[in-house]
Design brief:
Elements lengths: L7 E2 L2 H21 L5 E7 L3 H17 L2 E7 L5 H13 L5 E4 L9 H7 L11 H9 L11 H11 L9 E5 L6 H8 L7 E5 L6 H7 L2 E4 L17 E4 L3 E4 L5 E4 L12 E2 L6 H19 L1
Parallel strand pairs: 1-11, 2-3, 2-4, 5-6, 5-7, 7-8, 8-11
Antiparallel strand pairs: 9-10
Bound molecules: the ligand Nc1nc2c(c(=O)[nH]1)N[C@@H](CN(C=O)c1ccc(C(=O)N[C@@H](CCC(=O)O)C(=O)O)cc1)CN2.
The site of ligand LMY7XDAE has 18 residues, from strand 4, helix 6 and helix 9.
Pathway: One-carbon metabolism; tetrahydrofolate interconversion
Pfam family, one: THF_DHG_CYH_C
EC number: 1.5.1.5, 3.5.4.9
């Protein structure tokens, strides 16, 4: 039997397009003050997914009038060579903010590289100082960048008129780029959700899912969130991205949520086309905010 899709769509593509149009105006206002924001990227290696994401970031910059600076290093680059690229962007006045595309090759220590980024130029909000500010300033308006995917998740919900005040949110996944920071963001007083963070050590994920008004699935495990376990009418953000064989040898993007969830949820984000485009838009927002702060 084929399920009927009843959930409304949290359209990340359209929302990101609207945000980019707003950012374009802010970039024009900066230009009137003689400021052109610049985004730097450091890509190590030739992973096709990472190359695609970095190319997308430069295309987005061109669309809204942000300059971009690209540093590509080979897979064999040493940690010192990666740190050297970081130091170059820290010192480059044309670079307002920058990112180091993740994941890095296994021989490069991600924590060391992220800590070497100038916190004022941390366009991803992943420097320990900025993550610390998210913890410490949790109830104050943000004075530092937020990680792009968590910021994108919240923005996607709010721009669809979804009030999270008092909602029970289940975050699935405890990674530093999504799971942990999104929990902190959602518990800020102005958002006011009640958050449970599930992970591979969670004993009964189905029981947690049945309680949740909102599910943010960011574990990177194809279809681990089962439609049958969702509370009817739940709001579902499908964040995880995996590439799986579609049966004909072709790799297709697959989320963490079973497609049948669209017949149980009240709102659902498609994947692709949901949180991914929002991540891209939030990176641009962080660069514009950094230029405005400077
Ligand atoms: N330094 C960082 N590295 C990584 C981050 C990050 O935020 N900062 N996040 C991901 C990759 N990422 C951005 O870098 C990213 C992932 C997905 C999308 C996106 O638009 N996805 C499309 C689907 C595209 C596909 O076919 O894969 C969608 O959801 O519609 C944008 C950016 C890990 N690394």
């Amino acid at each position: 039997m084929t399920e009927v899709q009843t959930a409304q769509i949290l359209d990340g593509k359209a929302t990101a397009a609207a945000i980019k149009a707003e950012l374009k105006e802010r970039v024009s206002a900066l230009a009137a003050r003689g400021i052109t924001p610049g985004l730097g990227t450091i890509l190590v290696g030739s992973d096709p997914g990472s190359q695609w994401y970095v190319a997308g970031k430069h295309k987005d910059c061109a669309e809204v009038g942000i300059n971009s600076i690209r540093i590509d290093l080979p897979e064999t680059a040493t940690q010192e060579e990666v740190l050297d690229a970081v130091r170059r962007l820290n010192a480059d006045p044309a670079c307002t903010g920058y990112i180091v595309q993740l994941p890095l090759p296994a021989h490069v220590d991600q924590d060391v590289v992220l800590e070497a980024i100038d916190p004022a130029k941390d366009a991803d909000g992943l420097h320990p100082m900025n993550l610390g500010r998210l913890v410490a300033n949790v109830n104050r308006p943000m004075v530092s960048p937020l990680p792009c995917t968590p910021k994108g998740c919240v923005e996607l919900l709010l721009r669809h008129g979804i009030d999270l005040n008092g909602k029970k949110v289940l975050v699935v996944g405890r990674g530093v780029t999504i799971g942990r920071p999104v929990g902190l963001l959602l518990t800020r007083r102005d958002i006011n959700a009640t958050v449970t963070l599930a992970h591979t050590g969670t004993r009964d994920l189905a029981a947690e899912l049945r309680q949740a008004d909102v599910v943010i699935a960011a574990a990177g495990q194809p279809h681990m969130v089962k439609a049958a376990d969702l509370k009817p009418g739940a709001i579902v953000l499908d964040v995880g991205v995996s590439r799986v064989d579609d049966g004909s040898g072709k790799a297709v993007v697959t989320g963490d949520v079973e497609p049948a969830a669209a017949s149980v949820a009240s709102w659902i984000s498609p994947n692709p086309g949901g949180v991914g485009p929002m991540t891209r838009a939030m990176l641009l927002a962080n660069v514009v905010e950094a230029a405005e702060r400077a």
